[in-house]
Design brief:
It is a single chain. This protein is α+β, with helices and mostly antiparallel strands. The chain has one domain: 3-Layer(aba) Sandwich (Glutaredoxin), CATH 3.40.30.10. It is about 40% helix and about 20% strand. The protein contains 3 helices and 4 strands; from the N terminus they run βαβαββα. Strands 2-1-3-4 form a 4-stranded mixed β-sheet, sandwiched between helices. The chain is globular and about 30 Å long. The two termini are about 15 Å apart.
Length: about 80
Amino acid sequence: MAVKVYGADWCHMTTDTLNCLKRLGVEYEYVDIERDKQAAAWVRAQNDGKEKKPTLDIEGTVLTEPDDDELTDVLRQLKVI
């Protein structure tokens, strides 16, 4: 899967990102870092020790807390959409 979203169910920014991906018709894998401690450690490693949600891995490109425009731009650049 080209898009992996690391977040938390209670996080509105995670929900917003998932909704954006759904609107764009992009398949993704969602990882709840509240339940997966290895995933939480990966998120912290990408964000200078901070557990920022959501953090995305899009074909090796890492995005942290992107807004819809930034996410869409990166997905287009990487030819995911």
